[in-house]
Write a structure and sequence with these properties.
alpha+beta, 4-stranded mixed β-sheet
């Protein structure tokens, strides 16, 4: 007879709230909407100074890295709190790609070479991102690996790689295993993304060599595990984004007057905002459940993550759309930050699997037959 599983813990601990306060204060000082917009317009959205403080000053880069490798030895719950705050500020930093996806891949390799790279990543000395399409979803077939033409010389192209322009090292999946390749040794062709705060690029290797980190089977298992964790924690970023949109919209309709009355006193708007509040509250439960399931290595983690992504993705988009619409004319202007949140929400709805993909996974995990 097996012991019953502990129930999910959806509450925030004191440590998590302290981490939230530190990250929010940092972003308030260095990541104001006007600053984010200016950097996005410049074509170089990443702020190296902000990243250094977040990664090494606060220690957020090493949250998922064990203490023996120089990390904090924390869990997915703490990483989820950081992503909530980054989503609230649409911060242009490579945290999801570098400190979640890349970290999980390297942990799955379990080799001395991967451990050395984890130490650099945890200390904030290097930025490492996986050379995978941002749309790559957990549970979906992995893209065709690059070709090793001999002696670890890799040849091939990967499209839609997020944050590649900010990376020092790229994790490249090849037919002979996983390789760490210096980003400077590859050809990066920037793409024009919908979300200017998370740049995309096409990565091309032409006989480029790197350090082998794992054999093919280990590499593919590590990538699959990383995609699951990334999708689960992306729900927390979507939650933070939706919370900002709700808070800013409520503040606007309280202060905006028509016919000598606050706009927010109109019954139709009250209904829309009440429904959005319920959506965001439900999204918080789903995102926290996913983070806790990942942190505790729950056997139900794949199902919990799929539920969180299937729900939080739509809530973030709805919240951003309501933010734009209920701000009226100013919500449609370039100067107001609402469009940054709408674009991030739309881009996140495609990242690491669409809502339809995750609904399909929910059906599979719950053994629900597809319609004939």
């Amino acid at each position: 007879m097996t012991a019953p599983r502990a129930s999910l813990d959806l509450l925030y601990s004191d440590t998590e709230e302290e981490l939230r306060s530190a990250v929010r204060a940092l972003l308030a000082d260095h990541c104001a909407p006007a600053t984010v917009l200016a950097r996005a317009e410049s074509g170089r959205p990443h702020d190296p100074a902000l990243w250094r403080t977040l990664a090494s000053g606060i220690g957020a880069a090493g949250l998922l890295v064990p203490e023996k490798l120089g990390g904090a030895g924390a869990s997915h719950r703490e990483a989820a709190v950081v992503l909530e705050e980054l989503g609230r500020a649409v911060a242009p930093v490579p945290y999801l790609t570098g400190c979640v996806l890349a970290t999980e891949i390297l942990l799955g390799c379990d080799t001395p070479e991967a451990a050395d790279l984890l130490r650099e990543l945890a200390a904030g000395r290097q930025v490492c991102v996986p050379a995978l399409p941002l749309t790559q979803a957990p549970g979906a077939p992995l893209p065709r690996p690059l070709r090793d033409t001999g002696g670890g010389a890799l040849t091939g192209t990967v499209t839609s790689v997020a944050d590649a322009t900010a990376a020092d090292v790229l994790l490249v999946l090849a037919d002979t295993g996983l390789y760490a390749v210096p980003a400077a040794a590859t050809r990066l062709t920037p793409a024009v993304p919908l979300d200017l705060t998370r740049p995309l690029a096409t990565v091309t290797l032409d006989g480029t060599t790197g350090t082998r980190l794992a054999d093919p089977a280990t590499a593919r298992a590590a990538v699959a595990g990383a995609l699951l964790s990334g999708a689960g924690l992306l729900a927390s970023e979507q939650l933070g984004l939706a919370e900002w949109c709700l808070t800013e919209t409520v503040a606007h309709v309280r202060g905006r007057h028509q016919f000598n009355r606050p706009v927010g006193s109109f019954q139709a708007l009250k209904h829309r905002l009440a429904r959005l509040w319920l959506d965001v509250a439900s999204a918080r439960a789903a995102a926290r459940a996913a983070a806790d399931a990942l942190a505790t290595s729950s056997p139900d983690a794949p199902l919990t993550v799929a539920v969180a992504q299937a729900y939080c993705s739509g809530v973030a988009v709805r919240a951003a759309e309501e933010c734009v619409q209920l701000h009226g004319g100013i919500g449609m202007t370039w100067e107001h930050p609402a469009h940054l949140y709408l674009k991030r929400a739309k881009a996140d709805s495609l990242a690491l699997g669409t809502t339809g993909h995750h609904l399909g996974l929910v059906a599979d995990f719950a053994e629900l037959p597809a319609p004939a």
